[in-house]
Design a protein that fits this description.
- This protein has 145 residues and is mostly helical.
- It has 6 helices and 2 strands.
């Protein structure tokens, strides 16, 4: 856990979206997100291709979301206990994803890390099933970005 791997996703942003800005979090009305990308993100369907990552063994269905190495380097020294997220395999969905929104700022990251650490500290199969069921609700109600 905590090793870089290639993640499979549908493209939701314009090509070269970070060419001028460098890596940055997407915002609510981010102009870099395509029209179709907005729908995919809102319904969380952009995550479906990650089932391939689960089949290969890089990810599980439920767990803390993986993060790009750029952000891991910056958040590790800034967000308390950030590295503890790597104690388990990353997941397509997780407690933070069904209880929170997409990250837009450091405050969001802090909240999500607290959810991730709660998930890790209280892991059980029942909790995973509840998270998977909540994920279905999030997808069906388009309660995404």
């Amino acid at each position: 856990h905590g090793r870089p791997f290639g993640i499979v996703k549908f493209r939701t942003m314009r090509k070269d979206a970070e060419k001028q800005s460098g890596p940055v979090w997407a915002t609510h009305d981010d102009p870099r997100i395509t029209r179709i990308g907005r729908i995919l993100r809102k319904t969380r369907l952009d995550e479906v291709p990650q089932l391939l990552n689960v089949l290969v063994g890089n990810m599980s269905l439920v767990g803390p979301r993986p993060e790009r190495p750029y952000f891991v380097e910056r958040l590790d020294g800034t967000v308390e206990n950030y590295r503890n997220r790597f104690e388990v395999k990353p997941g397509i969905t997780g407690l933070a994803q069904v209880e929170h929104k997409y990250d837009e700022n450091l405050e969001d990251v802090n909240s999500k890390v607290r959810y991730d650490l709660t998930y890790i500290g209280n892991w059980n199969l029942t909790q995973d099933i509840k998270i998977l069921l909540k994920t279905i609700v999030v997808v069906l109600t388009a309660r995404g970005m």
